[in-house]
Design brief:
This protein is α+β, with helices and mostly antiparallel strands and 184 residues long. It has 5 helices and 7 strands, in the order H-E-H-H-E-E-H-E-E-H-E-E. The protein has helices at residues 5-31, 44-54, 56-61, 80-97, 149-159, and strands spanning 40-43, 66-70, 75-78, 104-111, 114-122, 163-169, 172-180. Strand 6 and strand 7 form a beta hairpin. Helix 4 (80-97) runs antiparallel to helix 5 (149-159). The longest helix is centred in the N-terminal third of the chain and has 27 residues, at 5-31.
């Protein structure tokens, strides 16, 4: 019997990325009432690009392609760890719930006085758009997860006055985040 070590090492590396993401979520949950996550002036463009790179092995292992359109030099006032939580949870959900061999779209652009971040993937339509951000809510209980990620995202958005929304159109689920552009 011959083992494909390259395949197994990629699986292990992908599992490590998912575990790290879960650890960071739990760390944030347990510390957010104690630690003040102070905002600073950060490049949302660079943070997004770095997080996409850190998920690269997951895209490969789970047979996902990324189509990204990231405007350069878009800055916001926020805590980078909290922004990473928003990005990571959306990326991991797109991987987990998106259809195989269908692209995941990531767009970051400026629209007047707003900076808009959008994650779009093909998959089953979201049934309850009002509950999707609630703690412990999962539409597909067959998939791994605790139903905490989008609740973390919601709480970060509320804390930082980030407008968030979700839509399902033509087998595409979109999660949209709007940041006020303070650089005008």
């Amino acid at each position: 019997m011959c083992l494909n070590l390259s395949y197994h090492s990629k699986q292990i590396e992908a599992s490590t990325v998912m575990l790290t993401n879960n650890y960071e979520d739990f760390s944030y949950l347990s510390s957010s009432s104690i630690i003040e996550y102070k905002p600073s002036h950060i490049s949302l463009s660079l943070v997004l690009e770095e997080r996409i790179k850190s998920f690269k092995i997951l895209f490969k292992v789970y047979n996902k392609t990324i189509l990204q359109n990231i405007d350069k030099n878009l800055f916001i006032d926020a805590n980078s760890f909290e922004i990473e939580r928003i990005i990571d949870n959306n990326l991991s959900n797109a991987i987990k719930y998106g259809e195989d061999k269908r692209p995941i779209y990531i767009n970051l652009s400026k629209n007047d006085s707003l900076i808009v971040l959008e994650f779009k993937s093909y998959g089953k339509a979201i049934k309850d758009k009002n509950k999707i951000f609630e703690k412990n809510y999962r539409e597909d209980i067959a998939k791994r997860g605790l139903g905490l990620g989008l609740n973390i995202v919601k709480n970060i958005c509320i804390k930082n006055n980030i407008k968030y929304s979700v839509s399902s159109v033509d087998e595409k689920n979109s999660f949209i985040y709007e940041f006020i552009d303070n650089n005008q």
